[in-house]
Amino acid sequence: MLPLSCAPPLPPPQSRPNPSPSHKPKPHPCVLLFPAALRTAAAAATISFSLLAGNAAAVAAVEQPSEICRGQDDGREVEVKAEAVTNEQLVEEAWEVVNEGFLPDAGSRPWSPELWMQRKQDILQGSIKSRSRAHDIITKMLASLGDPYTRFLSSSDFSKMSKYDMTGIGLNLREIPDDNGSLRLVVLGLILDGPAHSAGVRQGDELLSVNGIDIRGKSAFDVSSMLQGPKETFVTIKVKHDSCGPVESMKVQRQMAARTPIFYRLEKRDNENSSVGYIHIKEFNAVAKKDLVSALKRLQNSGASYFVLDLRDNLGGLVQAGIEIAKLFLNKGDTVIYTTGRDRQVQNTIVADSGPLVTTPVMVCFN
To answer: Which residue intervals define the domain PDZ in the entry (predicted)?
Structure first.
């Protein structure tokens, strides 16, 4: 696949309001080999969503399914219940995830294998009577790391992550500690033209209350549950714009359906016997891959000789959606993304498992 020089500018995507009056448009570089560009976008999606899914999410409690075993004596099927994970084992598993993969950075508190081992011994001195108590212990244990991206999710919280829009009004929240150690909830991402965005909420706004209830000190998941409700019902929220902006109350109508983030058109180039397939991806949500595949096939069948993929102002979204979209343009076996921990020799690598959907040149616009 070859890099292309930037073609004459195409008509820009549909305009949308700036986050703030002081926002100035950034230059739009358009020369990049496509796979590298989309890997960059996928990484951005990872960063934007990482507050929801630290390594500790892997230890969310999951009910073990029953196993059906066939006896060797008479062929009868015998149902065998999988052994349940004890509260102590759950805590120890969370400890192991950190012990094996946690990579401290400059913002974390002092950490060493010896200190972490001592914490485990202190925690497991006595019995843990309930699952909720085990969850509390894990939450506090991970909080002691001082890393905002390492957190524990219960099985119910983890299930909510299957939806990009956890709130029903088109926004995601990030927990930020204030000077007093309390949590503030700030809007991390918005679905463009979604309910919250249309009502006037902007990225970086602080959420202060939901239906008149002060939400200071509550977790992002707790508040997301407060925002959820039946489709087309209303929720009243109070937000503070920017860090020093005005406070505003607004009534927002819930809308649970995921909107397509893919917009495309076929353009004839002047003085050229070729057509350009232009595709704009607003975000990586649950329907992004399906709709992108449809757009690529329709444009190709209509005679597109090359494509322009516009990722400017993409909001990020679901990490897996970004990965699956990158695979559409990579050769089989190419690396999409990889992660490493303290042991640099151990990598978790995700590769493309099939060939590219299109083999015509692709140009990417990004900022």
So the answer is: 158-228
Global model pTM greater than 0.90: no
Query: What whole-number distance in Å separates Cα of residue 310 and Cα of residue 9?
Result: 11
Give the burial string for 238-262 (b: 16+ CB within 10 Å, else e). bbbbeeeeeeeeeebebbbebbebb
158-216 residue pLDDT tens: 665 545 455 678 888 888 877 776 778 988 877 777 899 999 999 889 999 999 999 98
Both tokens of 358, joined, read: 């299109």
Q: Which residues contact 167 (CB under 8 A, 6 or more apart)?
A: 173, 196, 224, 227, 228
Average pLDDT score over residue span 278-290: 88
Condensed to tens digits (0 to 9), the pLDDT of residues 95-132 reads 998 888 787 776 667 888 899 999 999 999 889 999 99
What gap in Å lies between CA 55 and CA 144, rounded to an integer? 15
Q: In the chain, what percentage of residues exceed pLDDT 90?
A: 37
CA-nearest of 338, 337, 335, 333 to 353 is 333
Write down all domains in the chain, each with its CATH number in brackets: 34-51+258-365 (3.90.226.10), 54-156 (3.30.750), 165-253 (2.30.42.10)
Asked if residues 202 and 187 have their Cβ atoms less than 8 Å apart, the reply is: yes
Contact 137, 123 (CB under 8 A): yes
